[in-house]
Write a structure and sequence with these properties.
It is a single chain. The chain is an alpha/beta fold.
Length: about 100
């Protein structure tokens, strides 16, 4: 498993306009880390006006194994849980957090 931080020079092509926003980082926890082989992506580009739902569609194209768990994960933006309609802005940090179980 690769625990190094990735820097992506190109994001998947889903540009609606020429304007883009840049996420500061994307963090993967637990099963999400296992599905991607990474704990963090630095600098992820998205089309302007993207929502969390748009981000999940794009990131799952980059990491297809994520689709196996996306219906169960929580998404935090800047350390606060958000819903799928949450609008992303330049510099946001996103965390993909699978459910935690234990006893």
């Amino acid at each position: 498993m690769n625990n190094e931080i990735e820097t992506l020079s190109e994001s998947p092509p889903l540009t609606v306009t020429n304007e883009t926003l840049m996420l500061k980082s994307v963090f993967f926890f637990a099963a999400a880390r296992e599905k991607t082989g990474s704990k963090e992506i630095s600098s992820f580009k998205l089309p302007c006006h993207s929502t969390v739902e748009d981000f999940l569609e794009i990131i799952s194209q980059q990491y297809p194994l994520l689709t196996e768990i996306l219906d169960t994960v929580g998404i935090a933006v800047n350390e606060e849980y958000v819903d799928l309609e949450h609008k992303l802005v330049d510099g946001d940090q996103i965390a993909i957090i699978p459910p935690i179980s234990g006893g």
